[in-house]
Amino acid sequence: MGQAEIGLIGLGTMGAMLALNIAEKGFDIAVWNRTTATTRAFHAGAGELAERIVPTETLEALVAAIKPPRAIILMVPAGPVVDDEIAKLTPLLSPGDMIIDAGNANFHDTDRRAAAAAKGGPRFLGIGVSGGEEGARHGPSIMGGGEKADWDRVAHILRAIAAQYEGVPCATHMGPGGAGHFVKAVHNGIEYADMQMIAEVYGAMRDGLGMAAEEIAAVFRRWNEGPLHSYLVEISSEVAAARDPIGGGPMLDMILDRAGQKGTGRWTAIEAQLLAAPITVIEAAVAARNLSARLDERQAGEALFGAAPQRLPAGMAGGLTIDGLEQALICGKILCYAQGFAMIGAAAKAFDWPLPLPEIARVWRAGCIIRSAMLNDMATALTGAPERNLMFAPAFAEKLKATHGALRQAVSVATLNGLPMPALSAGLAYFDMMRTARSTANMIQGQRDFFGAHGFDRLDGANSHHGPWGSHAAG
Ligand code: 6PG
User: Fold this and answer.
1) 401 catalytically annotated
2) Are the C-beta atoms of residues 208 and 308 closer than 8 Å to each other?
3) Domain span at residue 472?
4) Ligand 1 atom at minimum distance from 131 CA
5) Is 191 a catalytic residue?
């Protein structure tokens, strides 16, 4: 009988790093990869951790090397490959054995796989793992989904390998079925938005203020010492500071402006629409990535309509300041997270998942890509009031009051000068809509009643009223 505590399939970068992390934390781990040469090379390169790693060359050998009831982590590309691996493993497993999908699965797939498990397949956990290569090796943030009893069986391993925030492991069970992968998807949507908003203020500095990459790097470095302290601001300063090993100039200036994506941000935007949960900042960020990919069209557009000014005319730039941009970014970030957490709250209701909002903010405090100082304050603000929109939590309402003027200023000056700020603008519009007691939807209701007799409620209380549209009404 095998003795390894856990198994892992898929020794790509993330799988290999996770396996080393598990071995380093003192757990014996059996590993298998489709290509045996990869398994051998991985084991040979594992140094002193090799003694905790059991390399196997067949799935049968992998299964035999693990202590029952077994737990086997899948670290393979999301999608059909996961189903293939489950199908190959299932006949080899015994009752009580468990498969853990630690990839970036679509949470609907995880729900489907969890439902199959409930009908008698192997136990199944879908866990969202964030932190990239470095996180996987030294401490990711882990968002668990599936049956709590199954999570509890492996929680000691997952907590041991997770990032720690002031001694608290960033690994939490989020709810049944696809709940963990759902929370990971929202994390990724926020990741897209955080990155886009940073790119927008970078654009304001580069194109609006005419700053060089090194100067922008210094600004991000300084911001990272303040309220914006975060992994993404930190790496942005490093990206802006790096030199091109070929030409010697700033590396950033040589990178093609066409952003890639694997699709998780898009899943979040789609799901938000289905949940009727406005995450306009994330949606704008997803759209911005898609627009960035249309390089040919953008080039044609510039030829046809002319480029936005490369540098704002003197006088205009006065409205754009480094300190103002910092405040604008703080404001946009709060609004984006308010939307993201509200979406999680909407999903909790719609799917009947006990999604623990304050805990979600806590597991995002370390290890993951969106980790930031602000998340600790968000965890505090969400504690005891998880259903309240974060923008109404007193601590964040105060911050919004102090910063929304700067966001307005940045977006206005940028807009007047043709510098696109889609995500920050979306945040500002959300803020303005959320503080408008008398909106313009009365016009929408009038239109709906006019053409479709859909009815409307009156301000004086009468419900399902119809307008006096008379012979003009089509419906
Ligand atoms: C993480 C990241 C990661 C994601 C990459 C690439 O939390 O570690 O979210 O899971 O896959 O960042 O994402 P895109 O290719 O979609 O940008």
Assistant:
1) no
2) no
3) 446-475
4) 8
5) yes
